[in-house]
Amino acid sequence: MKLSLLSKYRTHIMGAAMMWIMWFHSAYTGTDEVSKILHRIGFYGVDMFLMVSGLGLYFSMRKSKSIGEFYKKRAVRILPAYLIVTIGWYAFYKTDVSFVDKLLSILGINYFRGTVSNRPEYFDWFLPTLFVLYLLTPLYDKLFQKASVKWKFTLLASMISPILCIIGFYTGRQVLFGTFARIPIFLIGYWMGWFLYEKKEEEKAGWMVHLPLLFVGIILAYYIHTYVKDPTIFWGLNCYPALFVAPSLSVILGFLFEKAEKYLKIVGKILLFPFYVCGRYSLEIYLIHQRLMEILNGEALTAFRNQMFSQFHTDGYYFLLAVVSIALAAALHELIALVTRLLKKIGKKPKDLNKQPDAAEPAAQV
């Protein structure tokens, strides 16, 4: 299996990760043990997303002319959708939250202020985590580029993760384990980006490597979810099996996507289309889906929800919820893109206005 498939099918893999996350957010777990454990570890889709994001950030760092341009690209992609959803959330739904908590939550600060005994109002944990990783990427890149053996440096840098988890455990910051435990998978993705960008020898690992790693990761996750009862320890351990699952599953998906596109032709493209759509609008889907679920699953809409359950059953209800979320996410994404294009068009002055009249040619009369 080729590691380069991660880059080729990056959007599709992000789409698969988003589908897994939406399933995790839903209450439909399936009936057999395999479905139940796959549902319980659906948050590993976040790890897949972070790994692929790390890969993409390495390319972005190489292509950006300056750190300012790098940050601008990230801000343009994330902030419009994030601010629209968060401000709308607190303006029209979470109206009882204090203004200070609203502001600190939108800025992502409240998430990092949380402790086991005191957890202030916060909108989300993933986006604040992503903001910090993006903010630190240029600094990490400088250190990474100086390292002579990149994989050893990546392994060494990843050791900050368990150290932070241990510190968090003894300081009551277990609520941040979800961030601390995700650092290694992001750094692995960054190493993969370097590997692909520098056009190193293609990775040759096949099914005999990736399937066992995937199996080991799922078994470890099953063991942790079954036997680790202390929630403060569980919060820290349950993310680490994703270090096996996320890379292997992503490579396997890339391989399957390539084969489907190559051998199934039009049918393959049709099968890949939903993954592409979910990947293209992954940020907006993530922002909208969980919030929409919270609204619909609230007490005010109990009668409506029960009616939907009786008409479409549990699986049908959550499938429709996912479809609506994707549609709203696509609309939001395209609306932002349209406004961005219009603002750029307005901001560009016509060449004729910028052109100074030639000395031998009089300026046009008004």
3D architecture notes:
- By secondary structure, the chain is mainly α.
- The chain has one domain (5-346).
- The chain is 76% helix and 0% strand.
- It is built from 19 helices and no strands.
- The longest helix has 46 residues, at 302-347.
- The N and C termini lie far apart (66 Å).
- Residues 358-366 have low confidence and may be disordered.
Set down the secondary structure blueprint:
Layout: H1 5-8, H2 10-25, H3 33-40, H4 44-63, H5 67-92, H6 99-106, H7 109-113, H8 126-146, H9 150-158, H10 160-170, H11 177-180, H12 183-197, H13 207-227, H14 231-237, H15 242-263, H16 265-280, H17 282-296, H18 302-347, H19 351-354
Helix pairs in contact: 2-4, 2-15, 2-16, 2-17, 4-8, 4-12, 4-15, 5-8, 5-17, 9-12, 13-15, 15-16, 17-18
Number of helices: 19
- Beta-strand percentage range: under 5%
Roughly what percent helix?
Answer: over 70%
Report the count of strand segments. Answer: 0
Q: N- to C-terminal separation?
A: 66 Å
The helix/strand series, from N terminus to C terminus, equals: HHHHHHHHHHHHHHHHHHH
Class inferred from helices and paired strands: mainly alpha
* Biggest sheet details: none
Low-confidence stretches: 358-366
Overall 3D form: globular
**Cα-atom radius of gyration:** 23 Å
Query: Whole-number average pLDDT?
Result: 89
Write down the domain tally.
1
